[in-house]
Design a protein that fits this description.
It contains eight helices and 19 strands. It is an alpha+beta fold.
């Protein structure tokens, strides 16, 4: 365990906005929680969990304890003819882990390549991309209760996974830190590529689909993301800022009468998912900045809000709220943030 006081978090989140933590604590084992709770100063302060800071917007200083999990071990739990089960420390970089799996010829996470963050953050957000959600591979999550330090194990169904959410982002928000996550992955001969998205399929044109490997998909998705999304090291951002909204069939057909070219994807329940990026761009926000600030909408992708250098978290939040107002006024649709706002 490592404790620091009055620590700048500017380089610890991908938005790179100014913010300070009263205490930053790095933990790597269960007993660290109990040790912190026995400290008379730290125990009474509010606690916040911060992974790689890739899905967080800090709008003010954190007058409390910021916890970071540094447990990074990958452990083989079991193996059978078709699959392997890997238990992974929550503090491990997500893309480092995904790269490890595809290099081992394992199917399941290759479409989730190049997503910033940690393994522990993945189930909280139920990260997803290119036709895959992490819930599809998770069998269980081990989490430490922030008050008692007790370890609790959540099976997949108990995680209450949904679109970019889970029980850890919902009714148990702020109560746990993810210690380990167990994944079931398919062996090379017992899996197949997910080519649901045209962009992935087009990237692999000319290759025999039957010969594709997890590494092929990983590299294709990584290249697509590098082309479409701004690099957080150059322009601070947290990737997609808003969730893609869903509307019922009746309302979608009303929208379609006014905007015949509105892109959409029909879901199994008959509702429609509409790309938030299209709604934002249709309202004229793509490439625009909040007046007099470096809080902007990326010119490369309208779903990505960026810090061009000197923006504050409060300014980026103000930009997000202005976008929500315009989209709601124009389309009657409320955009829900995907990013956690503190």
């Amino acid at each position: 365990m490592h404790i620091q006081a009055h620590v700048s978090l500017k380089e610890d989140t991908t938005f790179h906005v100014p913010a300070t933590a009263r205490y930053l604590v790095e933990i790597d084992k269960q007993s660290d929680i109990r040790a912190l709770r026995s400290d008379p100063v730290l125990a009474v302060l509010p606690w916040h969990v911060l992974g790689a800071g890739s899905n967080v917007l800090l709008t003010h200083d954190i007058d409390g304890v910021v916890l970071r999990n540094r447990y990074q071990q990958i452990r083989l739990v079991k193996e059978d003819e078709t699959s392997v089960w890997l238990s992974v420390g929550g503090g491990l970089n997500w893309d480092t882990f995904v790269r490890h799996t595809v290099e081992q010829g394992l199917w399941g996470l290759e479409n989730l390549a190049a997503i910033p963050g940690t393994v522990g953050a993945a189930p909280v957000q139920n990260i997803g991309a290119y036709g895959t959600e992490v819930q599809d591979a998770i069998t269980r999550v081990q989490a430490l209760h922030l008050l008692t330090g007790e370890r609790h194990e959540f099976r997949n169904a108990e995680c209450e996974f949904g679109y970019r959410t889970s029980v850890f982002k919902g009714r148990l928000k702020g109560q746990y830190i993810i210690h380990r996550v167990t994944f079931r992955l398919r062996k090379l001969a017992h899996g197949h590529p997910n080519l649901m998205y045209d962009s992935v399929r087009e990237r692999l044109v000319g290759k025999d689909e039957k010969q594709l490997t997890p590494l092929d998909i990983y590299e294709a998705v990584s290249a697509i993301r590098a082309e479409r999304l701004p690099d957080p090291k150059q322009e601070g951002n947290a990737g997609s800022f808003f969730k893609n909204p869903e509307v019922d069939a009746d309302y979608f057909h009303q929208l379609q009468q006014k905007w015949p070219d509105i892109p959409h994807h029909q879901l199994v329940d008959g509702s429609y998912k509409i790309p938030a990026a299209w709604l934002i761009e249709a309202c004229g926000w793509k490439g625009r900045c909040l007046s007099g600030t470096d809080a902007c909408v990326s010119s490369r992708h309208a779903l990505v809000l960026i810090n061009r250098g000197q923006a504050t978290g409060a300014q980026i939040l103000q930009l997000a709220e202005a976008i929500q107002t315009d989209v709601n006024h124009t389309f009657g649709i409320h955009l829900e943030p995907e990013v956690i706002i503190l």
